[in-house]
Amino acid sequence: MQSLSSIRKKENGLGWLFAAPAILGFVIFVLGPMIASLWFSLTDYKVASQAHFIGLDNYVHLFDGTDQFFYKSLGVTFYYVFLSVPLQIIVAFFLAILLNQKVKGLAFFRTVFYLPTIVPLIASSMIWMWLFDPDLGLLNVVLRALHLPESQWIYSEGSVVPTLVLMSLWTVGGTMIIFLAGLQDIPRHYYEAIEIDGGNALHKLMYITIPLTSPTIFFNTIMGFIGGFQVFVQPYVMTQGGPNNSSLFYTFYLFREAFTFSNMGYACAIAWVLFIVVLVFTAFLFKTARKWVYYEGGGA
Amino acid sequence: MKKHGWSGSRVLLYTVLIVGSLFCMFPFYWLVRSSMMDLSQIFLIPPKWIPEPFVLENFFQPFEELSFGRYFVNTFIVVAGTLAGVLLSSTISAYSFARMRWKGRDKVFALLLSSMMLPFAVTLIPSFIGWQALGMVNSYVPLVLPSFFGGGVFNIFLLRQFYMTLPRELDEAVFVDGGNHFTIFTRIILPLSRSAILVIGLFTFLNTWNDFMGPLVYLNDESKFTLAIGLQQFQGIYSAQWGVLMAASLIVVLPAIILFAIGQKYFMEGIALTGIKG
């Protein structure tokens, strides 16, 4: 058909035109800033004065140990990420499996578990601060009443990160819903086949559920890591990085350098280190994914 | 197959679900309860479960002593602008990626998708420097304008997934009738994807409502603050007045909850729609 093929030909230009907002947005708000950020990271730009090219000095300064906050914040962030992400994945997966059974009030439970994820982080930070208050907060009041040892929660160096991990479990519902969507795609007859072969619940989990949801596990793990590395609001609002920098999360440290101390060039270098850490992590996950992520279409 | 009686595993199942629900709902309850207590009640030990009497005073303070009314208006301006931008640009761009054939399309789309993994910190500082150079800091432009450029990769991804489920024959029929892509987009695709667009609207509303980092970086004048930033300032002033702080938090939370209650069905559909299978 003449007309159809001419329409298809026109699509080349028209396609770009329709996609133009997204492509322009990528160039202006992603690619451009990335290049600018890389450039600034090689300068001593401090807003008040002109930027001077200083080569890799910012990076050298970060790694040579003179900036103890860099290593501190990396440590805090890694601690948080490696504690919270596996916990979140396991809890969310486990809850999703429970909700994938024939449960009465399924819609109710789903809603209840999902609800905390829509609360603005600033508001949930306030609510949890009140619950964590060492003197009058409910958690310690209950512990006291039960004659259990109290905790200083976010107010002591040792407990602040685990406390924030506990708080992060409150919003596990978003991850859970994605798992649930993945679980509901598994054909029932796979489980029936295992039952016929005399398999038990553990067999179902190991041979059906986990392999068939492995792409979802993979997705949630990657998203969990990327989100975890960028935690900002909770330390900013709840602890200001304290006590004694024990909750100096990486993005909070970066924010402070950029917007409190106006060390823009230096902050860009900090951002690039984060980018590379995230990149190495996702690359590592993608590489191992070939071994454990199962795609029904074959090939990862 | 077994018939379900109240076997041990069933009891365990419901126990875990109920304990989990309590963990999820309890902070909400404590928020509401504390917001209606005055200082003499809130610090009682053992704690009271129900306010007695109910005090509504806490809810007036944010409006009287800080301009929460103004923050509401400001937040709505930002939300409305962002919604307009997202809905206009993501629907069009997703159409191109889902239903038009052009050279490099899939590569461009993959590039866009990969930017989802980019930490926001990498673009934050140069973007700020750029907006500052343009004299736009302390205005809503940096918060709203980017949404007109594609409206976010995730939204495009979600819409594209949905558009691809609509039958191709519809397009061919329009072409035969002498229509073009614009006709297909406005007359067929948009009306048919109303629910997907609603999902995006809901998520956009919530994300903008909840955004803290953007307003924190770009807004300096108190008169321009959004609710999220206003609430944070409130915390600085009333650091130990938990009743007032909880009332103010509830004011910020409530619109999100109401919206969720109204659009619940679409939220759940939206998550299923993304069909994340790798």
TrEMBL record, chain A:
It is a multi-pass membrane protein. InterPro entries: ABC_transporter_permease (IPR051393), MetI-like (IPR000515), MetI-like_sf (IPR035906). The keyword Transmembrane applies. GO terms for biological process: transmembrane transport. Residues 74-285 form the ABC transmembrane type-1 domain. Keywords: Cell membrane, Membrane, Transmembrane, Transmembrane helix, Transport. The chain crosses the membrane at residues 12-40, 78-99, 111-131, 160-184, 205-233, 264-286. GO terms for cellular component: plasma membrane. It is found in: Cell membrane. Belongs to the binding-protein-dependent transport system permease family. This is Sugar ABC transporter permease. It comes from Paenibacillus peoriae.
